[in-house]
UniProtKB/TrEMBL annotation:
Region (Disordered): 271-333
The protein's name: Glycosyl transferase
UniProt keyword annotation of Transferase present: yes
GO biological process entries: lipopolysaccharide core region biosynthetic process
Keyword Glycosyltransferase included in the entry's annotation: yes
Species in which this protein is naturally found: Streptomyces marincola
């Protein structure tokens, strides 16, 4: 799915060069674009490792690798073939991301940092933000259209409770010893418990899993990770990509928030999902630094017993079903 963009069909390029959670919160916007431009090749500029996840959305035809350190904007989007008819900035609200798209000389540009366009709202949920941008430009998009199809392979640990202690920044990591205590308690009660880890998180997964003899699943490819999450009894996770994957697959989850409000990045209101957050002032939606080097104090206010109670309140998951079709399939060239 990655590589140069060639062929006769008109192109639509979307810049979203961020992480897995960022991609999954953009699924409703991507599907809106897919429906509005069924004859275009929809090309996503994003990190190459997201190619499999991008394909799973049913909206993206091809990924062109585009990365930058942290959450910065790529300075260059590799492009070959005719210029895109449409270019959409789903990356940010500054001139840098528009500059990267303007360099492709698109016929029409969509973004927040344009002279004419909708106003950026700091307190808006990420799914709503990008759907509102597109709707303003005449492309209807539904923030609720976020489900992924069921994986086409069985879970490697059906019915397990999945614990994911990792996150890009320490500020959003619930302490490993609390994850370990939760895992031991769940296993003592007869649950199968699997600790997942992304790249570079192996030591953290071992710290959580080894004291209680829990299973580990490290560095899984997206298809296998999605199968694990889709077949799980529940997922316990911080504000990171795996939380959005659980939402997209309809898996019950308990999501732990600290520096940023769930009103900005949390799952939709549903009995399937419980969010735990203990701010000093709920009106302050960004009370901490989500990229900080130490665990946010609001995250430390969440105890093991509270997480266990939230888990116990979740409904029993139903087998995953296919998501609604995102629209007519584009021509393949």
């Amino acid at each position: 799915m990655t590589g140069a963009v060639r062929g006769a069909a008109p192109r639509l390029v979307v810049l979203r060069a961020l992480g897995l959670g960022d991609l999954l919160t953009a699924v409703p916007a991507l599907r809106g674009l897919r429906r509005a431009f069924p004859g275009h090749r929809l090309v996503l500029a994003a990190p190459a490792w997201l190619a499999e996840a991008a394909a799973a959305t049913g909206a993206v035809d091809r990924l062109v690798p585009a990365t930058a350190p942290g959450r910065a904007v790529p300075g260059h989007i590799p492009w070959a073939g005719p210029r895109p008819e449409h270019a959409v900035d789903l990356h940010g609200n500054g001139p840098e991301s528009l500059r990267a798209l303007r360099a492709l000389r698109p016929g029409r540009l969509y973004g927040y940092a344009l002279p004419r366009g909708p106003a950026w709202r700091a307190g808006e949920h990420e799914r709503d933000r990008w759907c509102r941008l597109l709707t303003w430009h005449g492309v209807p998009a539904d923030p609720a259209d976020l489900r992924l199809p069921a994986p086409d392979q069985p879970s490697p640990a059906p019915g397990a409770v999945v614990l994911h202690p990792g996150a890009d920044a320490a500020a959003r990591r619930w302490p490993a010893e609390r994850f370990a205590a939760l895992g031991r308690a769940l296993r003592a009660d007869g649950h199968r418990v699997v600790v997942t880890a992304g790249p570079g998180e192996g030591a953290l997964a071992r710290e959580v899993a080894e004291p209680g003899g829990l299973e580990r699943a490290e560095g899984l490819p997206f298809s296998r990770l999605a199968a694990l999450v889709a077949g799980a009894r529940a997922v316990v996770v911080g504000d990171t990509g795996l939380a959005h994957l659980a939402t997209a697959l309809g898996t019950p989850s308990v999501v732990l928030f600290g520096p940023v409000s769930p009103q900005l990045w949390g799952p939709p209101r549903s009995p399937r999902h419980r969010v735990l957050w203990h701010p000093d002032d709920p009106r302050d939606q960004r009370p901490g630094d989500p990229h900080g080097p130490v665990t946010d104090p609001r995250l430390l206010r969440i105890g093991v017993a509270e997480v266990r109670a939230a888990l116990d309140s979740l409904p029993t998951p139903t087998p995953p079903t296919l998501a609604p079709a995102p629209g007519p399939a584009p021509p393949r060239t």
